[in-house]
Amino acid sequence: MSVQEKIETLRNELREHNYNYYVLDKPTVSDFEFDMRLKELQALEEEHPEFFDETSPTLRVGGAVTKNFETVTHESRMYSLDNSYSKEDLDDWEKRIQRILGDVPVAFTCELKYDGASINLTYEEGKLVRAVTRGDGFQGDDVTTNIKTIKSVPLQLKGDYPAKFDIRGEIILTLEGFAKMNQERLANGEEAYMNPRNTASGSLKLQDSTLVAQRPLECLLYSIVGKDLNFESQFEMLEKARQWGFKVPTVAKLCKTTEEVMRFVEAWDLKRHELPYETDGVVVKVNSLRYQEELGYTAKAPRWAMAYKFKAEQVLTVLNEITYQVGRTGAITPVANLEPVLLAGTTVKRASLHNADQIAKLDIREGDTVFVEKGGEIIPKIIAVDFTKRPRDSKPTIYRTHCPECGTELIRKAGEAQHFCPNDMGCPPQITGRIQHFISRKAMDIEGLGGETVELLFKEGLIRNYADLYLLTKEQIMPLERMAEKSAENLVKGVEASKAIPYERVLFGLGIRYVGETVAKKLAKAYKNIDALMMATEEGLVAVDEIGERIAQSVVQFFGDGTNQEIITRLKSYGLQFSLSEAQLKNQSDTLKGKTFVVSGVFETLGRTELKKLIEDNGGKVASSISSKTSYLVAGDKMGPSKRTKAENLGVPIISENEFLAMV
Ligand code: AMP
Ligand code: ZN
User: Fold this and answer.
1) DSSP string, 61-88
2) Using CA atoms, how far apart are residues 289 and 235, in angstroms rounded to an integer?
3) CA of 115 to the centre of ligand 1 (A)
């Protein structure tokens, strides 16, 4: 046997052992034997670097160090899931689905919802080429080096895998592995980690992959995305993934009705405590991939999937004090400061009380004993007061009348739940909050500048609004705490670079109340430069698709304000983008204005998403189900027959892809 053959044989053998041990949980050799083979392979590889292979099992031990995790844009977005908590929620969901699909039988795949950190793995020619965290769903961090150390992630696939695809899953720590890690930490005099989920997620961002390799992380897979995949249902997809060597829990079940789904949920609600890992619910998915495609996505989640959350754990603790936080818009949030208590693996010290009404509704008072609950949310909720434990001298809560930060009297507008501090130009957390929003990732994305630095710059009197950022000099910044020449330089560079950020993101960054990312995009499209937008009237704004009165009022008010006008004039003079670029303008038209389209079936030249984008870019609207308001049904191949009938009954014209393309 040649050296190369010897190396290949060892690699394959070790791959198989890894698979048996970590994916199937059925080891066939002893750890000692495994280590011997691994050492043998390591020695051979060292001697013969010419046979290097990026999928070799020796790479599992880590070694590489990542200083900066590169940001990578996901080829297809990673969505959240909508939540449901009851049979009724599920039935409502089924009805919504049926409305879109047109009363066809729909089967569901039920999987457990693994509670860890989501990951997107890209495979090309059967090799793992990239692993990226979910991040904000659009882009995440490249953590490939660390993921390669997780032994249940195959570096080399087997079987009839497609040439290129993405597969998604959850990186978790088993409860046993987590407990072991903590024992070791305590033995070393270190502090214990709080819960498996945060620890798993934190592990992905460790710089030294050797440390990651030592953690008992696992990767459980649930979804494949790609073109030309040879399966037609979610259930089949899971089976394929298993065949290619992925770890896909076998508890998944195919259900024909929501009743069956409920039985699955109820069974696992009881059995979940026997699982080796944490789960916070069940994910129910429409089984047919064609139906999934037809159902598509909302802005946040797939319409074809639904998380069913297990009832959260509750604990009792004492409410020590109610304090008040001021947000960037001046909104006041009352916060419950609790006697620290362990809940679902984390120590809880604070909970949001939302607003004055909530406090009144719960009749919650300082000194009360309260029920605290934690769903999947990060911030726990207070559900109720245990009145039997109320101290005799307790007094009703009187909501704060003045701003805790600047002392201004709080106001509450009719019909609004929140109190506000109206001193928007003089209240410190509002000033810094606006600047922090301006520099945030989805707005101006200013590198080298973080939230704390903003506070510091404000405290030092160097900035009072976001326009001031553009006048900062290296010399001003360097003497500040924790700043050095390099960081000051980076900050100034980051500010300078932000001048290229496109118009719609600048609009979002301005921090106009109710103008989120999506609304900012709509506004930029309708008012192609800031001058036009500044002159817009409420009537004009409301005429824009999806802009309501509340937003219109807020926009007019913002630009009517003298200080804001001044700031914008300054920003313009510094060279920020205040109009759509040539390229953006070129791809847009009003050709389809006032027309509503429903898109259904499979298309030849365009993907569905592209088609929808084309409609929107040309001023049209996309709807998910046919109604009398639909202008056209764009019909592709394999469109559901009920849709066709519905369109015909309502007299909605049915057009082909080519007919549509001729329109734009
Ligand atoms: P959430 O972040 O609560 O909206 O839930 C969405 C996340 O659940 C996804 O990003 C996945 O990472 C995670 N998840 C866990 N298990 C599953 C599963 N079986 N199917 C789909 N998503 C899952
Ligand atoms: Zn204030």
Assistant:
1) G---B-SSPPEEE-SSPPP---EE-SHH
2) 10
3) 8
List 26, 87, 113, 572, catalytic entry: 113
Biggest distance spanned by C-alpha atoms of the chain: 87
Against a cut of 0.70, is the pTM above it? Answer: no
Q: How far is the CA of 197 from the centre of ligand 1 (A)?
A: 13
Task: Report how far residue 243's alpha carbon sits from residue 247's, in angstroms, rounded to the nearest whole number.
Answer: 9
Strands 117-124 and 127-133: antiparallel
Kindly state the tokens that stand for 506.
């600048």
**Ligand 1 atom nearest to CA at 113:** 16
Does residue 621 have an active-site annotation? no
pLDDT tens-place string over residues 163-205: 999 999 999 999 888 888 887 777 666 666 777 888 999 999 9
DSSP code, position 244: T
> Hey, which residues does 283 pair with through a beta bridge?
111, 307
- Please say whether the beta carbons of 365 and 384 come within 8 A: no
Q: Is 313 helix (H, G, I), strand (E, B) or coil?
A: strand
User: Taking CB atoms and a 6 Å cutoff, what residues make up the pocket around ligand 1?
Assistant: 80-81, 111, 113-114, 118, 134, 170, 222, 283, 307, 376
Class of residue 336 by CB neighbours under 10 A (exposed 0-12, middle 13-18, buried 19+): buried
Q: What are phi and psi of 366, to 5 degrees?
A: -60, 140
